[in-house]
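Extended Data, panel c. Modelled sequence:
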Amino acid sequence: MAEVRDLIIKASRAPSGTNFQPWKVVVVAGETKRRLSAAVIQDAERGEKSEEYAYAPSPVPEPYLSRRRAVGYGLYNLYGIARDDYVARKAAMLRNFEFFGAPVGLFF
């Protein structure tokens, strides 16, 4: 955790828009991270979600939709997941909520 703390302290000196430095960091690890991941995955598997803000416009216009799809298909290809293997694609997507196996999760 000392490495994470050092990284956050150094990153806090990086410039931001008009130098507001408007961020707060929450770090989760260990049992807290495991419980959080399990709860979020359970909700995601039930199709439950709540967005604090719109991450992308809906519907996604071109050329962004094509770019997004190309990145997604390319990622699944690297994972060895067939384009029509929706079960494996969903499992890969759920790895987001496990912080891709990282020992800590950071929320900014």
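The chain has four helices and two strands. This feature is highlighted in the accompanying rendering.
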